[in-house]
Write a structure and sequence with these properties.
Shape of chain B: globular
Number of strands of chain A: 11
Largest sheet of chain B: 7 strands, mixed
Number of helices of chain A: 0
Largest interface: A-B, 24 and 26 residues
Radius of gyration of chain A: 13 Å
Helix content of chain A: under 10%
Number of helices of chain B: 0
Number of strands of chain B: 11
Oligomer: heterodimer
Order of helices and strands of chain A: EEEEEEEEEEE
Strand content of chain B: over 45%
Radius of gyration of chain B: 13 Å
Chain lengths: 112, 113
């Protein structure tokens, strides 16, 4: 059962533009929402994470927006750069639950 | 230092071979994980060790056998694998605490021939 839905599957953005990736979850027990960035041939690396008691978290060019009532969260990459080209996974985990549930991934390509 | 080290980086094995994947972390993390990732798919949880005890087995076939010799080491023993088991195997670890992060290693690429 898919518990975290991620869209779009792939995204092409021009250099300097804003990349937006969306995720929606069903399980209200989820309380920790990280985003991972994965380059080809590498393991996923934590990019940024948010807890549901805040609506937005920003780290450099990366921002997570969180809408608890809609059970949705999104990643915004400002001033997108070619080096941001990678696959991005949203994820969710519940209190006391060791299992991290991943979204299906978004392949982001930044073109010059 | 948030490093999870996996060896080997690449492994090719026959269906009758026995091999092992190794993982090491020196961050004092209490939970360690094995994930399997196929191309263009998200990581899938296989096993979780918490305080050196197996706490989650996601119905993984017995040809995969995890082992946690101590709090810093995690092994995945492989025997009689099938070609469809070829994938990237990721080790990860997490400190205690409700909102602690899961850190992944670079993975071991496994090809079963």
């Amino acid at each position: 059962q898919q518990q975290v839905k991620q869209s779009p599957q792939s995204l092409i953005v021009q250099k300097g533009g804003i990349s937006i990736i969306n995720c929606a979850y069903e399980n209200t027990a989820f309380d920790y929402f990280p985003w991972y960035q994965q380059f080809p041939g590498k393991g996923p690396a934590l990019l940024i994470a948010i807890r549901p008691d805040v609506s937005e978290k920003k780290e450099g060019r990366f921002t997570i927006s969180f809408n608890k009532s809609a059970k949705q969260f999104s990643l915004h990459i400002m001033d997108s750069q070619p080096g941001d080209s990678a696959t991005y996974f949203c994820a969710a985990r519940g209190i006391g639950n060791e299992k991290l549930t991943f979204g299906t991934g978004t392949r982001l390509t930044i073109i010059p | 230092d948030t490093e999870v080290t996996q060896t080997p980086k690449h492994l090719v094995m026959g269906m009758t071979n026995k091999k092992s994947l190794k993982c090491e972390q020196h961050m004092g993390h209490r939970a360690m994980y094995w994930y399997k990732q196929k191309a263009k798919k998200p990581p899938e949880l296989m096993f979780v060790y918490s305080y050196e005890k197996l706490s989650i087995n996601e119905s993984v076939p017995s040809r995969f056998s995890p082992e946690c010799p101590n709090s810093s080491l995690l092994n995945l023993h492989l025997h009689a694998l099938q070609p469809e088991d070829s994938a990237l195997y990721l080790c990860a670890s997490r400190a205690g605490g409700e909102f602690s992060t899961i850190y992944f290693g670079e993975g071991s690429w496994l090809t079963v021939v």
